TrEMBL record:
The keyword Kinase applies. Residues 27-275 form the Protein kinase domain. Residues 1-30 are annotated as: Disordered. GO terms for cellular component: nucleus. The keyword Nucleotide-binding applies. This is Protein kinase domain-containing protein. It comes from Cyclopterus lumpus (Lumpsucker). Gene3D superfamilies: Phosphorylase Kinase, domain 1, Transferase(Phosphotransferase) domain 1. PANTHER family: SERINE/THREONINE-PROTEIN KINASE 17, TRIO RHO GUANINE NUCLEOTIDE EXCHANGE FACTOR. It comes from the Eukaryota. GO terms for molecular function: ATP binding; protein serine/threonine kinase activity.
Length: 299
């Protein structure tokens, strides 16, 4: 089962629609959960019932509602506050959970290809729902994919929709790349219009990293990384992909195409033979455990 951290409505709870003091807000825990181009995410607790929550500080003028249908699998937007020109979003906090890179490291860097395909499938199912609502995430990376450890079968929760936008059928949208370019599509770097295919590129990078433990475009500086992305400068070195199936490589290549129009949709990706739609009964995988102990996610 996949999950989404999502802004559930263009009409937040009635009680949250006026500016209030920070004293009314959540209690800060000691841990910062993450940081993106639009702000930081912290762990905390809701004052009235001690419910574990996460909350994010973003500049109010950068906030965009992303409309979505109601699903049980969403992590809810519980409340929001405007304090000193900052918007504070209070979201349900999945517990216990770790991000995808930490999960792989906790497994000793030895995942099976079938496990990688499972996490990619879960991510694609989450994106499929977002894209159906014309919402693009635009910041898909391991730190924004939480693995829910609560159930016997780990589930995926996409978090940090600070960069997400709902696309219009009548106006093209160009997104400013503010953070790490490692998982960014060429159109984000070039400043050309984004689309749902922008997220599919990021899935291709995620799959490459999880299969090999190395990043396809990462270089010594963000500038060099951007050049590699725009030149589509990547390959499948035998040193890292010796035990990876050809069908897995084909999936990565299909997602990492310069022209967004040539990339498959999330729905089409889910029909790829490597990903499969049949859970444990879908997909074609190498049986050899993968060595991702060299995993290096970010610049």
């Amino acid at each position: 089962m996949f999950f989404l951290s999502s802004l559930e409505s263009r009409n937040p709870p009635e009680a949250a629609q006026s500016e209030r003091s920070a004293d009314d807000g959540p209690v800060l825990d000691s841990s910062k959960l993450g940081e993106g181009g639009c702000g930081c995410v912290y762990a905390g607790y809701r004052r009235e019932d001690n419910l574990p929550v996460s909350f994010s500080h973003v500049l109010s003028h950068t906030y965009r509602h992303t409309q979505s249908t109601v699903r049980k699998s969403h992590v809810d937007l519980l409340d929001w506050y405007i304090v000193d020109e900052e918007l504070i979003l209070v979201l349900e906090r999945p517990m216990p959970a770790v991000d995808l890179s930490n999960y792989i490291e906790s497994k000793g860097g030895h995942l099976k290809e079938k496990e990688v395909a499972f996490f990619i499938r879960e991510t694609l199912e989450a994106l499929q729902h977002l894209h159906t609502c014309r919402v693009v995430h635009l910041d898909l990376k391991p730190e924004n994919i939480m693995v829910d450890l609560h159930s016997p079968t780990p589930g995926i929760k996409l978090i940090d929709l600070g960069d997400a936008v709902q696309l219009s059928a009548h106006r093209r949208y160009v997104h400013l790349l503010l953070g790490n370019p490692e998982f960014a599509a060429p159109e984000l770097i070039r400043g050309t219009p984004v689309s749902v295919a922008t997220d599919v590129w990021s899935v291709g990078v995620l799959a490459y990293v999880a299969l090999s433990g190395v990043s396809p475009f990462l270089d010594e500086s963000p500038e060099e990384t951007c050049v590699n992305i725009c030149r589509l400068d990547f390959c499948f070195p035998d040193e890292y992909f010796r035990d990876v199936s050809q069908v897995a490589r084909d999936f990565v290549s299909s997602a990492l195409q310069q022209d967004p129009r040539k990339r498959p949709s999330a729905t089409s990706c889910l029909q790829h033979p490597w990903v499969g739609r049949g859970g444990a009964h879908g997909g074609e995988y190498s049986k050899t455990p993968l060595d991702t102990t060299r995993l290096e996610i970010s610049i």
